[in-house]
Write a structure and sequence with these properties.
- The chain has 536 residues and is α+β, with helices and mostly antiparallel strands.
- The chain has 21 helices and nine strands.
- Among the domains are: 43 residues; 103 residues, no CATH class.
- Helix 4 crosses helix 14.
């Protein structure tokens, strides 16, 4: 070993644990003393420093190809130690398949970038910090954006947790976006060009079509969550099973709204299912439920007693929340089970609010082709908070997260980022035509030009018989009475539904019923568009 190499080794020992500013001073002193290029020596020492950290962390201590621990050194190239597997012959380095592969940035800079990403810094602010505080001269918006995408993708790729106990499940929806794309694609009319959207322009057909990305979320009573982008438009029982079954460990209960995919999943796996329809509060109000005023104790007691009677009546008629897959449960027992197990949708609704705030406001819209990365990143940070009792708020916290990325060995190249395509399942052209046709019929029947089908309508495949079979007996009786049918109470449910299906105005019957059962008449996106004067 030459004196020059010995000096480099000694320099590396000195600077390994130094902050970046001091690191640069030592490199500058070394390069001046030895009459060599500062930039070249800085790159060299950063590489050697990163390599030592990877080796100390045990990254690539086994063959990345076959997993064998029988590896040997195989020379160096540009200061990077080359390794060879004795079993399969694979050649690699400590950097192989890691996010640090070909990186020239110091460890401290990586930690700072990740810290800024976790704290939702805008790209422009990240650039300023890197230039002003770390002297990253020449770094630009695109470079930092790519950097952010690599780290977000890495965290999104880490395994999501296993949920247990009481699990709340529901979907939320984010408007399809092609932010940053030069050529826009229409997923509604394939034969037409997708025009840019300006302002709050609402969708034409709502969340059941290709104008929205569907995010299915699940959260257990510990607070751990799993969030996955499933598709454009409707989610199916097959999608839900494929994406979430691995994350569920013997749930005590699954809580959801009236979307039948969760009912079907629970039936297949024999899991108790707590179902609370979205029109729950509206149903109570329509039937005389009143919030007690406890300033008048006597009146409050009377109101509460009346409310209990209303709840029991509606429960027995199948009009409000219920537990299925556990046989017939008396109302009193249902109330006790609900209270004991804290059965509700409060946690998952809060999760949805946080997701929409993150995507729509903190990130100011996200291209749908990158949406799963952002949702996965959001979920990782949220679960980290549950595990540690606080959000990552220090350099030490950030460093521990970065080390997890390195040990998992996820690398997302710039070419892969630029070539990313939207690969989510999409509604077929035939389904979209059916959705358009049925939506127009529903708008005419309900006299509501803003009508759009929702995830709880029970008509995902527009199977009217299936929809009617899911209704309570009392609702079917009400339809039969309105249609002037005779002796309908003597019919079995199947026969009663068959008789209703024969009515000439069956479309109007179903669509009016859908409108009456909703807790809203106009979607929130249309209300927001109206308020911003984007539509008439």
């Amino acid at each position: 070993m030459t004196n020059s190499e010995m000096t480099l080794e000694k320099a590396m020992e000195l600077i390994q644990s130094l902050p970046f500013t001091e690191f640069k001073k030592v490199v500058k002193s070394y390069s001046d003393t030895n009459g060599v290029s500062f930039d070249n020596e800085l790159d060299k020492m950063v590489t050697v420093s990163l390599q030592k950290r990877l080796i100390d962390l045990g990254v690539n201590s086994t063959c990345p190809n076959c997993g064998s621990a029988h590896i040997s050194k195989n020379g160096k190239r540009k200061n990077v130690q080359r390794l060879e597997c004795k079993d399969c012959g694979k050649q690699f380095t400590p950097f192989t398949d890691t996010i640090l592969e070909k990186s020239k940035w110091h460890w401290d800079i990586w930690i700072k970038v990740l810290e800024m990403i976790i704290n939702n810094y805008p790209i422009e602010a990240m650039v300023r910090v890197l230039v002003d505080d770390y002297d990253c001269v020449g770094i630009n918006y695109k470079t930092v954006w790519m950097w952010r995408m690599k780290l977000i993708h890495a965290l999104a790729s880490l395994p999501q947790p296993t949920l247990t106990g009481v699990i709340q499940v529901d979907e939320t929806f984010i408007r399809e976006s092609q932010k940053g794309s030069r050529e826009l694609i229409s997923y509604v009319h394939k034969e037409s060009k997708r025009l840019p959207r300006y302002g709050r322009k609402p969708s034409k057909y709502g969340v059941m079509g290709s104008e929205f990305a569907t995010i299915v979320t699940a959260i257990d009573n510990r607070g751990y969550s799993v969030c996955k982008v499933t598709s454009l438009g409707r989610v199916t029982i097959e999608m839900f099973h494929d994406l979430f079954d691995e994350n569920f460990d013997s749930p005590a209960y699954i809580c959801s709204d009236a979307n039948d995919i969760y009912e079907n999943y629970c039936a297949v796996h024999n899991i108790p299912h707590y179902e609370k329809p979205s029109n729950y509060l509206d149903t109570l109000e329509k039937n005389g439920y009143i919030t007690p005023d406890f300033s008048d104790e006597a009146l409050a007691i009377a109101v509460k007693e009346n409310n209990d009677k209303i709840l029991e009546k509606l429960y027995n008629e199948g009009e409000i929340d219920k537990i299925t897959n556990r046989g017939q449960i008396k109302y009193k027992d249902f109330v006790e089970l609900k209270k004991k197990n804290n059965l509700s949708l409060a946690r998952v609704n809060e999760l949805h609010s946080d997701i929409k705030r993150y995507i729509n406001h903190e990130m100011t819209n996200v291209s749908t082709k990158y949406l799963q990365d952002y949702i996965g990143f959001f979920t990782y940070i949220r679960n980290w908070r549950v595990k540690h009792g606080h959000y990552p708020n220090s350099a030490k916290d950030t460093e521990s997260i970065f080390i997890e990325i390195l040990k998992t060995k996820v690398n997302y190249t710039s070419i892969e980022i630029e070539n990313t395509q939207l690969e989510l399942p999409k509604p077929t052209g035939r389904y979209m035509q059916l959705l358009k046709s049925e939506t127009e019929k529903a708008r005419e029947a309900t006299k509501n030009r803003y009508f759009k089908f929702g995830e709880e309508d029970g008509v995902k495949a527009f199977n009217k018989r299936e929809y009617l079979l899911d209704l309570s007996r009392n609702k079917l009786y009400a339809i039969a009475k309105e249609c002037g049918m005779k002796r309908y109470r003597q019919l079995s449910i199947w026969s009663l539904v068959s008789a209703i299906m024969k009515q000439d105005n069956i479309d109007q019957i179903i669509y009016k019923l859908l409108a009456e059962d909703r807790h809203y008449k106009i979607d929130q996106e249309d209300l927001e568009a109206m308020s911003s004067k984007s539509i008439a």
